[in-house]
Structure formats: C-alpha cells, structure tokens
Design brief:
Length: about 270
C-alpha cells in the first residue's frame, strides 16, 4: 500500500463544500471528471476550475430562487457532472441535499418530497418526469422543478423549467457559507423503502468526511488515478467512495455509460 500524502486534510476541508473549494484551489487544472459525449462519440474531460465555475452558476440560481440555509432540495438524476455541481452548490449555501434514486417510483418520490419538505427538485428529463407526472399534484411543497433535458408533453405545470433557461450565464466564485457547521446537517439519505416507507438518515459534513478519509487510507488509490463510477450516487457507498473519496485523493472520476458497457468503458477511459 502506498504512503498517503494528501494535499488536503479533513481538518483543512472542515466541510464537504470546503473540500471542493480546496480541491479547486490546489489543483485547478487537474482533470476532475470524464464523461462520454454521444454527439462526438468521444470522452470529454472537465477540470476542477471548470467545475467551480459551473457550480457557481448553480449557486447563483439557487440564491435567485430565494432559498435559505436549512431548506431541503432534491435531486433525481443518474451519475453525472451536474449531480456534483448540484450537490456542491447546495451544500456551499447551507441547503440540505436530499438525493433520490434516478428512476424511483412516483409513490416513493411523493412520500420523500413531503417527509423532507422539499422546496425544489432537479431531474434529468423524460424518464424522471414519467415518475413525477402521476403524483405531481401531491408535490404541493415543491415550488420549482428543474429538468436538464427538454420534456415533451409536460402538461400545464408552471413549476417546470429547463436548466439552460434557469441557470444564469455566469456566477460569482464558488462560495462556502461562513456559518456552515462541520457537525451540522449536510444531507438526508432515504432508504429504498423495501420494508415499509423510506426512512431518512441525517448525516453531517463531519460524518461523511471522516468516513471518506478512513476509506481512502485503506486503499492503494491516489493522485492521478481514474475511477469508474456506475453505482447510484443517491446511495452513500458510491457518494463516499466514488465521489468524495476521489475529490479528497485528487483522482479523476469517469462516468460509465451503462452497466452493459462497463467492460468497454474500463478499457476506453
């Protein structure tokens, strides 16, 4: 096992958005994420600096919505760069991220939205809208629905808007709320609901950073390595090992196109 010499310590990061900010400052030109671009048929890279700039746009949009620290916001998307942008933008502003499985049932979605008091929900597109559409009248507390992709036949729902229209062209530098408490609530992660209604687990920044650091110390992975992400980020295993761990260890995360193409992706990335 290689000796770990981390350029960011958990104490220096203090919080999850603090970790993101430190990574941007320390290695702005390192490759943060790699995704497959279907139009060009090739893999595309995104640096930490570019991630910071894009995430600042999300923060500007959240601020414009009037969201306040402690408000709960949901995300219902497969693994992608935008998942990270949403997560870091919300955490940096003191919002509480509530992730949902990207193709969860409408009943689970409606229950979680009410139980967590979601004010805003971000989805990828048509697949998620099919789950939302039958229960959208139950999402009474959700004030805004944001979709990354255009949705046809969305019906008359004034809450729905396209991310490209909602996000400003630019934002100020990525910010971390100075009042953010490392022991404060960062996220509420719900169980799958196989033995009854989903149950929300409340996790702090310190909870997750501690687990991330300990996990990294048990692996041979380190700076410059590439990880392939395919397990859902809505679960804490992937969110810890396939997202925060890579950020702490200065690694690149590549997003798998699908489980069926995992073997091919392992070779091509």
């Amino acid at each position: 096992m290689r000796t770990k010499r981390l350029d960011i310590t958990p104490e220096e990061a203090a919080t999850l958005p603090g970790l993101f900010r430190q990574r941007i400052l320390k290695t702005p030109d390192h490759i943060a994420y790699r995704h497959f671009d279907a139009v060009s048929g090739s893999w595309r890279d995104t640096t930490w600096k570019e991630m910071g700039e894009a995430t600042a746009r999300w923060q500007a949009a959240f601020i414009k919505e009037g969201l306040q620290p402690g408000d709960r916001v949901g995300i219902m998307m497969p693994n992608c760069r935008e998942w990270v942008m949403f997560d870091q933008a919300t955490l940096g502003l003191g919002l509480i991220n509530v992730p949902l499985f990207y193709n969860d049932r409408g009943g689970n979605l409606a229950y979680i939205a009410e139980d967590a008091n979601l004010r805003l929900l971000v989805i990828e597109g048509e697949e998620q809208w099919k789950s939302i559409e039958p229960v959208r009248n139950k999402l009474t507390g959700v004030e805004k629905l944001i979709s990354l992709q255009p949705i046809e036949n969305s019906g008359a729902d004034d809450r729905l808007c396209l991310a490209d229209d909602w996000l400003p062209e630019s934002g100020r530098a990525f910010q971390v709320d100075a009042a953010l408490d490392p022991d404060g609530l960062a996220t509420i992660v719900y169980t799958s609901g196989t033995t009854g209604q989903p149950k929300g687990v409340m996790l702090s920044h310190s909870n997750i950073l501690c687990n991330t650091y300990d996990a990294l110390m048990t692996t041979n992975a380190g700076s410059g390595d590439i990880m392939l992400s395919f397990l859902p980020l809505s679960h804490m295993l992937e969110r810890t090992a396939g997202y925060y761990l890579a950020m702490l260890g200065d690694m690149t995360v590549a997003y798998a196109r699908s489980v069926a193409l995992l073997a091919e992706d392992l070779v091509s990335i």
